[in-house]
Write a structure and sequence with these properties.
Layout lengths: L13 E5 L4 H12 L3 E6 L16 H11 L2 E6 L5 H14 L6 E4 L19 H29 L2 E6 L11 H21 L4 E7 L6 H7 L22 H13 L10 E3 H8 L11 H13 L7
Parallel strand pairs: 1-2, 1-4, 2-3, 4-5, 5-6, 6-7
Helix pairs in contact: 1-2, 1-7, 3-4, 4-5, 7-8
InterPro entries: NAD(P)-bd_dom_sf, SDR_fam
Pfam families: adh_short
Organism: Streptomyces toxytricini (Actinomyces toxytricini)
Length: about 300
Amino acid sequence: MTNATPARPLAGKVALVAGGTRGGGRGTAVALGAAGATVYVTGRSSRTAGRSPLDRPETVEETAARVTAAGGLGIPVRVDHSDPDDVRALTARIGAEQSGRLDILVNSVWGGDPLTDWEHPLWEQDLDTGLRLLRQAVETHITTSRHALPLMVAQGSGLVVEVTDGNTARYRGSFFYDLAKSAVIRLAFAQAAELKEHGVAAVAVTPGFLRSEAVLDHFGVTEDTWRDAIARDPDFAYSESPAYLGRAIAALAADPDVLRWTGRALATWSLYKEYGFTDTDGTQPDFAAHWADALEAVHGPLGEPL
């Protein structure tokens, strides 16, 4: 059925990375491709349909090309995951093209940065903006799982990954941001409870200090020159590329005993110890260890994993 090898453990597997245009979604799509998977890359930014409201240059076609270059097969599909009809059409297409197969679902839709208010408490925030963040960052995940999970249930196997920020109950600094990132952890927990009897695992996974395209732009550096920004922010020395998150998720997807993790909130800084993967520069960033060493005295404990 597959031609999987140790170098390509996901050969023959089919993945959907929802929100794969940039950031952790892009890193995950490419890592799954490098492991041999066929990856449907979705998002709102497309060469043909134009940019999303984020107005960034990355596109689903660009990510899909990187998936193919890494050794997999990237299939770009412009999808608005807040539109149930769009998502329904997407999963129907995957089912038709892949003979009903879907092995990996990564819910990485975010797009909430311009909607996040880091300066004000809830009672001083714009309510419409905050609720729009929740619809963009939580409802999209629910909608995607609702239409994708029947493929996994029918085949009796699979892995659902909810990408979040942080794997503890620690407050994340802004009411709606915290609610969104906490909610997707609960989505993983709830899906795990319903899916386990069908042989499907569901987990949440968080990166550490992620060097997304937007973060690199903020510091005025590139992935090749990112260390130049350490002088401005010493914590940036402990950051990680989107590929590190991707390699963590690819390792989970290739684990024949992945059900042992189901219902858990996991992190790159613990998964590298389990699976031995590295970042693109050969390092193994551990932001939790850096927090304990350098930040806990000021900001308090990071908190125990959920």
